[in-house]
Design goal:
With 437 residues, this protein is mainly beta. Among the domains are: 16-25 and 40-125, 3-Layer(aba) Sandwich (YefM-like fold); 303-434, Jelly Rolls. 9% of the residues lie in helices and 28% in strands. The protein is built from 5 helices and 26 strands. The chain has helices spanning 16-27, 55-63, 122-125, 190-199, 227-231; strands at 68-69, 83-86, 96-98, 107-109, 112-115, 118-120, 151-156, 176-181, 206-209, 212-214, 218-220, 234-237, 243-245, 267-271, 274-278, 303-306, 318-324, 331-335, 341-347, 350-353, 363-365, 374-380, 386-393, 401-407, 413-422, 433-434. The strands form 8 sheets. Strands 16, 18, 21, 22, 23, 25 and 26 form a 7-stranded antiparallel β-sheet that branches. The radius of gyration is 31 Å and the shape is elongated. The termini are far apart. 29% of the residues are buried. GO terms for molecular function: metal ion binding; metalloendopeptidase activity. Its main location: secreted. Residues 189-303 form the ADAMTS/ADAMTS-like cysteine-rich domain.
Length: 437
């Protein structure tokens, strides 16, 4: 078509200006590439340009790299007669239109394609072959989405080389490859990173009633949403206790709670608004697992299971009975007599479980989103009396952790701790029966 956008809407023929520009192009010897015929199945008439350049591509060619296909239609404008595009990436309310037909072969409806400005079925299109989809080349890897804490870099490809048409098959395989990057720890926790994103929308009004703006303080909806839903910028209103999506998606690399607990050593993180699992090697869907020693792809031979027991303590005092060394894994502690005793946990000289003389409630430190977190669970009887305390820490332990016991009065108690002993680190294990405090 001519550069001025001239268009003959009657018979879709070349305008005089377009003819002149094409002849000039050929006369300057710049068209040698057209002599290199592509190796395509079927006849050239079967391979329509719209199979390679979809509506989004045509919008970018016409209006720039941020343009995309209009998300709504005008019934007065036939789908294939006008190119309608969103120009502003942040504005979905308006479209700019160019009076040029969509390329032949552009999909315009279910099992329908454009041909000379009309939306037609395969029979009318006159295709004699089935066109199976084929992948484009991979894009470059994107910049890392975070500067610390484990961001994501990814690259994509599209099933548009050509697009499947006339009953052809979709491309086989994934359209994305992704890896974790910048995995060094941040000063803030993974929960803090999600909280920061939620709080950034505090000044964005929520319209619960027509023409009535309401403002809330937004915090992470951990415990209320999980999986893909959690990655869709789901936040909780502080004090009001309802959740709502505050945007399209969290930043890639934001940690999430997958619908099923990820295997030991793997990481669940948001990617393009979905909760995805990365193997212990940091690669999306690699399936690579860490062994019981915390070694990625290991065979469990670098550590051994050890166990120990504790008997002692003073009434109404906290007594340390276990100090977990760095790199400890698979720690499991059970207190089966929590009526007159209870557990306490200190991380770097600060109590995170109990410590005030009373039994703690269920908690996860620092949060379910954080790597190497510690879970404390209090199990109750049908009468809501304490039945058992349990500490779970998959590890590897990254900080000095001390486990203590408080005896409120003399009483038998059983505790077990499971951990591993490696060549360069020691992991302690279960405590046995206590005869008294």
């Amino acid at each position: 078509m001519a550069s001025d956008g001239g268009y003959n809407s009657v018979d879709l023929t070349w305008s005089p200006c377009s003819r002149q520009q094409l002849l000039t192009f050929f006369s300057k010897g710049k068209a040698e590439c057209v002599k290199d015929l592509p190796a395509l199945g079927g006849t050239l008439q079967d391979w329509k340009p719209g199979l390679y350049y979809g509506v989004d591509d045509q919008c970018r060619i016409a209006f720039g790299k941020t343009a995309r296909a209009c998300t709504f239609t005008n019934p007065d404008l036939p789908a294939c007669r006008v190119l309608s595009c969103h120009i502003n990436p942040d504005d979905d309310s308006s479209c700019k239109r160019l009076l040029v037909p969509l390329l032949d072969g552009t999909e315009c409806g279910p099992n329908e394609w454009c041909l000379k400005g009309r939306c037609v079925s395969p029979d009318e299109l006159g295709s004699s072959v089935v066109v199976h989809g084929s992948w484009s080349s991979w894009s470059e890897f994107s910049p890392c989405s975070r500067t610390c804490g484990g961001g994501i870099t990814h690259r994509t490809r599209q099933c548009n080389n050509p697009r499947p048409a006339f009953g052809g098959d979709e491309c086989v395989g994934l359209d994305i490859q992704a890896e974790l990057c910048h995995q060094q720890s941040c000063e803030r926790t993974q929960l803090d990173f999600m909280a920061e994103q939620c709080s950034q929308t505090d000044l964005h009004p929520l319209y619960l009633l027509p023409n009535t703006a309401s403002f809330y303080t937004w915090i992470p909806a951990v415990g209320f949403a999980q999986g893909d839903e959690q990655c869709r910028y789901m936040c909780q209103s502080k004090g009001e206790n309802f959740i709502v999506s505050r945007g399209s998606q969290f930043v890639d690399g934001t940690r999430c709670e997958s619908d099923n607990p990820p295997p030991f050593g793997s990481t669940a993180a948001c990617l393009r608004g979905e909760c995805q699992v990365f193997g212990c090697d940091g690669v999306l869907d690699s399936g690579k697992l860490a062994d019981v020693c915390g070694v990625c792809g290991g065979d469990g031979s670098s550590c051994t299971l050890t166990s120990d027991s504790y008997s002692g303590g003073q009434t109404k005092e906290y007594t340390t009975f276990l100090s977990l060394p760095i790199n400890a894994t698979q720690v499991h502690i059970i207190n089966r007599a929590p009526l007159f005793t209870h557990l306490a946990v200190m991380v770097q000289d600060q109590y995170i479980v109990s410590g005030l003389g009373i039994m703690a409630l269920n908690m996860t430190h620092p949060s379910p989103l954080d790597d190497h977190h510690l879970e404390y669970r209090l199990h109750l009887t049908p009468d809501l009396l304490p039945l058992m305390e349990e500490l779970l820490l998959p590890g590897p332990v990254q900080q000095e952790i001390t486990i203590q016991m408080a005896c409120l009065r003399a009483r038998g108690m059983f505790s077990s701790v499971w951990a591993r002993r490696g060549k360069t680190h020691c992991l302690l294990c279960p405590a046995r029966s206590w005869q008294g405090c």
